[in-house]
Structures are given as C-alpha cells and as structure tokens.
C-alpha cells in the first residue's frame, strides 16, 4: 500500500497557494480506487457518470442516492487517504436546501466522504451555502453540467459566446461567496478558465477546460479505454485496458472451447486415501440404499 498521510483541505489549499497542480480522478469502485490510491491521486470523485460507465444508462439522471452511497463506500475502502468527493445525483439536492443537506450528510456519514459536489450556477448558491453551513465541504460544478444536458443542447462546450462566458465567470464568484471549497469546470474555453482561475481564492479544477486551473480531472474509464460508447475529446487515453481485457476474454473462450483451460495448476485435488475412502463410503451407501 502507498504510505501517505490523509489528504486534507488545508493540504489542498497549500498546493493551490504553492502553485503545485492538484490531481483528481473520477472512479467508481474498490479495485479502481486501489490503483488510484497507489498513484497518490489527491482528490477522487465518485461521479454520477457511473450511471453510464458502470450501469449502462444513456445519461446520469436515473442514478439514485443509494447507488452513489454503495459505490462511494467501495471507493473509500480502496483509497483510504484521498480527499473523497461524493457526487450528488439528480434530485438529491434540487428540491430544497434541507433535502440537499440531508443527502450531503449521507455521503459523509454512510460512505466516509470528505466532501460532496453538485451541479449548477447562481440558482444553486443557496444549496451550496446550506451544505457548507452544515459543516460539509462542497464543490461546485459549472460549464457542461450533465444533469442539465437536455437544457444545454447536448454534450457541448459551454461559454464560447461572451454572454454565456460572462455568466459562468459571475457564477464562479457567486459559488465561491456561497462557501464552495472548490469549483470544477467542465468543457469551457481555456481563456475563460484562465480568467476564473486568476480571480478565484479557492482551487479551480479543469475537466476539458485547459491548463489554466489549479488542478485537472479525468475519468478513469476514459483514461483506460473502458467505456465502449464514445471517447470524449478532452480525455487522454493512458492505456488501453479495454483492449487487453477483450483479448484476454477471446483467448479464454478459445481455450475453454478447445479444452486447453483449465490446466492442473488451475484446480484442486483430494488426497488419494481420502478419495478411496469417499468411494468406499459411496459404494457402501448405494448397496445399503438398494
Ligand atoms: O460524474 C462525473 O464523473 C462528473 C464529472 C464529469 C465531472 O461529474
């Protein structure tokens, strides 16, 4: 196991002030989190993108709080020292401040998260404030916000025109003022991201929004070629695990069909004397039953 101290909010803020880039990954279960822990990634997001990558939905809207809690628990077990962020799923915070605080509290109490994340601009400032006031660190999410993908007109860059860019810059300030400990920007133009980073006093994290941020986020499945439907432009593929897995599975099918698997090293024997006794007993029983 990697031997590092628990990542804390002061440690993340120190990275920001020292100009050391913060690393962040979205992952979803114990095994992925184990490897993320070994690599000493700072922040891990259990994203509601698990609805697509792990559960096969078309989008994130069907994901429930119980789905998120179960996956967050596994990730926490795999990565005990990261700064763990639970992604609040659709309708777990939109209805009211009170519902938002209750569900944020579940991530902390039931899954051992350090923080939560929610999507949305100024209209979500009161949710951010309520959660932060309850003592729960909360991250904002601006730009492309997948829970509103229909309203945004699809998975596309946000803030290419000056009016929308201005709104995003203002939203960033409002979320910071409301008490967000950090804000994630998904798919906004690099120079808009730069303006926001220069003005912010909290860590700004970029997903497909360029280099001018305090940290970067990628999604595990995109990094390792594990999601079959599409590869977003912003994702860099660091290894094609999907191809390795597919080749292995094809070989397995061929070996079972061709009776090359299993080999003696893949099964377990019984000592000769025990086997002889077993046969004797079975023969005896059969005689008795007959
Ligand atoms: O669910 C997720 O993984 C996310 C990222 C796309 C930021 O919210």
Describe this structure as you would to a colleague.
- The structure is a single chain.
- With 290 residues, the chain is α/β, with parallel strands linked by helices.
- Helix content is 45%, strand content 13%.
- An eight-stranded parallel beta barrel has the order 1-2-3-4-5-6-7-8, surrounded by six helices.
- It is elongated.
- The model has no long low-confidence stretch (mean pLDDT 96).
- The chain binds 3-methyl-2-oxobutanoic acid.
Compact summary:
The chain is α/β, with parallel strands linked by helices and 290 residues long. The chain has helices at residues 9-18, 30-38, 50-53, 65-78, 97-111, 125-133, 149-152, 162-178, 190-199, 220-223, 241-257, 272-289, and strands at residues 22-26, 43-46, 83-87, 115-119, 138-143, 182-186, 204-207, 215-219.
Query: How much helical structure, as a percent, in the residues?
Result: 40-55%
| H/E series | HEHEHHEHEHEHHEHEEHHH
Catalogue the unreliable spans. Answer: none
Task: Report how far the terminal alpha carbons are from each other.
Answer: 59 Å
Main-sheet strand order equals: 1-2-3-4-5-6-7-8
Structural class: alpha/beta
Radius of gyration: 24 Å
Overall 3D form: elongated
What's the number of extended β-strand segments? 8
Q: Profile the largest sheet.
A: 8 strands, parallel, barrel
What value does the average pLDDT take? 96
User: What is the count of helical runs?
Assistant: 12
Any ligands, ions or cofactors bound here, and which? Answer: 3-methyl-2-oxobutanoic acid
Strand composition percent: 5-15%
């Amino acid at each position: 196991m990697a031997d590092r101290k628990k990542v804390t909010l002061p440690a993340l803020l120190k990275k920001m002030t020292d100009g050391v880039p913060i690393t962040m990954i979205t992952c979803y279960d114990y095994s992925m989190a184990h490897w993320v822990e070994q690599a000493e990634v700072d922040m891990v997001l259990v994203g509601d993108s698990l609805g697509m990558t792990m559960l096969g939905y078309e989008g994130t809207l069907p994901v429930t709080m119980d789905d998120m809690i179960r996956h967050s628990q596994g990730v926490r077990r795999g990565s005990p020292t990261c700064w763990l962020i639970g992604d609040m799923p659709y309708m777990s915070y939109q209805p009211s401040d009170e519902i938002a605080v209750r569900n944020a509290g579940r991530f902390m109490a039931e899954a051992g998260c350090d923080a939560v994340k929610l999507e949305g601009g100024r209209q979500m400032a009161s949710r951010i404030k309520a959660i932060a006031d309850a003592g729960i660190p909360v991250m904002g999410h601006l730009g492309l916000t997948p829970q509103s993908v229909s309203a945004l007109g699809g998975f596309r860059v946000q803030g290419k025109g000056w009016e929308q860019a201005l709104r995003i810059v203002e939203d960033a300030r409002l979320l910071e003022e409301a008490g967000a400990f950090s804000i994630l920007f998904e798919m906004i133009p690099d120079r808009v991201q730069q303006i926001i980073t220069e003005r912010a006093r909290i860590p700004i994290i970029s997903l497909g929004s360029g280099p001018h941020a305090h940290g970067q986020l990628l999604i595990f499945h995109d990094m390792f070629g594990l999601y079959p439907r599409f590869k977003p432009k912003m994702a860099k593929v660091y290894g094609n695990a999907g191809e390795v897995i597919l080749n292995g599975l094809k070989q397995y099918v061929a070996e079972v069909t061709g009776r090359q698997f299993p080999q003696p090293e893949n099964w377990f024997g019984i000592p000769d004397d025990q086997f002889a006794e077993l046969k004797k007993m079975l023969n005896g029983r059969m005689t008795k039953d007959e």
